[in-house]
Structure formats: structure tokens, C-alpha cells
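User: Fold this; C-alpha cells only.

Assistant: Input:
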Amino acid sequence: MTTTEMTNNHGGNNAGNMRTAAGEYLTFVLGNEQYGIEILKVQEIRGYDAVTQIANMPPFIKGVINLRGKIVPIVDLRIKFKLGKVEYNEFTVVIILNLNGRIVGIVVDGVSDVRELREEHLREVPSLVTRIDTKYIVGLATIEQEMLILVDIEKLMTSNEMELMDAAVH
């Protein structure tokens, strides 16, 4: 990785991303925090069902499901983001994402709403605010008294550790 890439990934300067971050977001809950992902990446939302486990996967890769004939890997974001004790209940859902033709499911504590975010709602992420690696965060959004952490779900799902998942399901 070049110095420029490192600066872009870890420097916390997401000003260019902030202007392009305005739009509609699906908001969901993980632990005590509200998160948002671009609605255009969401294919569907389903209740959490049992998954088929695959040997030698990192703990956050729960396994795979068969979704209308397609094998879809399932990632538990609560484990990925190290949010403590993970419980599956009636509110636990799987958000099925379509990331440039690649279908992936993410497990979250619950889905909240679809929110329209404008530029005035968006803020940069102060360093050391979150447990998540900030290279996966586009920014923060504040609407009234709510704070949303906006996740670059595509960057997160195409990170190196996710390549293990690809190898297992293909």
C-alpha cells in the first residue's frame, strides 16, 4: 500500500466522500448504535434463519444460505465489529445486499427505517470514536437527536478477510 493510499484509508479525511454520501439510507441497529447503508445496495430484508456453517471460517462468517437457488454468504456484523454478546431473537434480521452483482447477507440486531440524508446532516468521523475500523465508515449523520454511523458496506464486504468467504462459497 502506498503512502497516499494509507493517508486516504486512515487519514480520516472523508470530505470528498461526504458530498457523495447524501441520499437514502437503510438504518439498522447493532448493539447500542444506529448505522446506515446506502439503500441502493439493499436487495431485501429477511428474518434470521439457520445457516449452513462452513469449516475454517472466521467467527463473523456465520455460513451460507440458499436464496432462491443462489448460495449467499452470511456475515454477522455484531461479531465483525466486536460488539460483545450476540443474541438471536425475533428482531434479528438479515439484510441481503447486492454489491455489484455479488450477493451477501449481513446479520444485524434490527432494521429501523429508510432515511433521506442531505449534506447538512453529514459530519466527518472524529478519530477514535468508534470500534469499527474507520476506513469502512463514510461519515456520521445527525438528524434531530439521532446519530447514525454511515458504513461503506461495499468496502467492508470486499476487504481481504472477506476473500476467505468467496473461496469457501465458490
